[in-house]
Amino acid sequence: MDPKTLTASVSVCPQITPDDIQAVKDQGFRSIICNRPDGEGADQPSFDEIAAAAKKLGLEARYLPIVSGKVSDEDALDFGNALNELPGPTLAYCRTGTRSATLWSLAKAKSLSVADIMAATKAAGYDMGGVVRRIVNGGKTPTDRADASYDVVIVGAGAAGIAAASSLQSRRAGLEIAIIDPADIHYYQPGWTMVGGGIFDAPDTAKTMGSLIPRGVHWIKAAVAAFEPQDDAVILDGCRVVKYKRLIVCPGLKLDWQRVEGLVETLGKNGVTSNYRYDLAPYTWELVQNMNEGRAIFTQPPMPIKCAGAPQKAMYLSGDAWFRRGVLKDIDIQFNNAGGVLFGVKDYVPALEKYVEKYGATLNFFHNLVAVDGAAKKAWFDVSKPDTPVERVEMEFDMMHVCPPQTAPDFIRVSPLADAAGWIDVDQSTLRHKTYENIWSLGDVMNAPNAKTAAAARIQAPIVAENIVADMDGRAPVAQYNGYGSCPLTVERGKIVLAEFGYGGTMLPSFPKFLIDGTKPSRAAWLLKEKMLPPIYWKAMLRGREWMAKPEKITT
């Protein structure tokens, strides 16, 4: 007997025997549900035998037989009622456990999210992809007809999604393209570091989504619940079905604030802030302006994260502001990084270390933020140095800038498109899905080993568009991605270390050294970041004007 836990109150397992009942009781179960009809297998004990053994040990048992592959809506309702009536925890079984897991999934469809149901069953070893539409539909069987159908469907209207739509339109007029995204506002997220440094105003980093969706592209203002790649379908909340010939998946990633105990409750007050949120970046600058002494902690979680340089950018701009005001000598700057290096590409580290020294910052590697008590001005970090037991340390603070843990969105992690770590599984060169040939991905959500930055998406969008058009023409992929990403490290107001690199940390500078030497802080790189990149983003990238982003052709 090998029970698989779905929740604390329900587990499922393959066929059990009367001899297993003692073990069932010893593991804490108080009731049993049989979902396998008697006589289905020659060596199968009857339910009466199971029930008799259970009764002797004080366990309740119920018989809800389901023919394999024929779980009805009424069956799911009966299973849910049984769970409510029987004492828990409950163990449900059938031949393999799949029917029981399916019944639980449908029974809980109205009370749990699709992602939670899919995650629980996946962790238990059961694939609920075949009933995902019914789960999305509250446990009820929906009609199979598509509500809409398009040549290309794009999931996500962030930088990657809108740029991909525009790049497609510029290559193939007349395509029926739909973008699925529930958001009303589109944000220029690279600008939030500058908001936190007092350079940009937050409203300048936001525009209405409707003003940015390319003309002729259909905007489906809804959330995606699940994917059915075998049927070329995307299932929306409410169980609407959108069919596609080709699919682009780029919903970004999830900022997992909840993973740090006490963080959500204290964000935006008690000196706890983050440039990773539009509404909090102005608070960062407010704290910096008002701070004259004390300890300021800047945190960075385990990789991957979007814009890996952003946590230290906040530190540099804050340190520079304190330096200019003459209060830096009274401020203790601590940079607590869950990783083991200041920056992943070594060529840029010497310049950064000079600024760490200038601001008197202490670098604490292998320090991962796990809990915060904002009112008490205390934070706790797990210190995980190599070959050393994990140690939890407490640090007091007056100000703390937090970079949250990050993961793929829930509906992506539990989908058939994801790899074992939850990211969209693509070929890192063509950005095509490794399993489903009519699916591509770009931006923060896919698993290519590149930096997750807007600059990367700017390069990736034309590559995806080029390869999709080639596929429409019956050709093999024609464009390849070299892993390019850019991180303009704002080391002081007016100077930037412009890190540009590709796969394996290969340096990929866009400008000649006499103009911008990326390994050194420069005024030219600052002007690029402050004056040029925002209009390039709004007026070029999102409109399919591929300035310095022409796809690299595949060479044979």
Automatic annotation (TrEMBL):
Pfam families in the cross-refs: BLH_phosphatase, Pyr_redox_2
Beta-lactamase hydrolase-like protein phosphatase-like domain sequence ranges: 4-110
Keywords tagged on the record: FAD, Flavoprotein, Oxidoreductase, Quinone, Transit peptide
Alphabetical GO biological process terms: sulfide oxidation, using sulfide:quinone oxidoreductase
Cofactor field: FAD
NCBIfam families named in the record: TIGR01244 family sulfur transferase (TIGR01244)
Keyword Flavoprotein in record: yes
Sections of the chain in a coiled coil: none
Domain FAD/NAD(P)-binding: 150-266
Organism expressing this protein natively: Litoreibacter janthinus
Name listed for the protein in its UniProt record: Sulfide:quinone oxidoreductase
GO MF entries: FAD binding; hydrolase activity; quinone binding; sulfide:quinone oxidoreductase activity
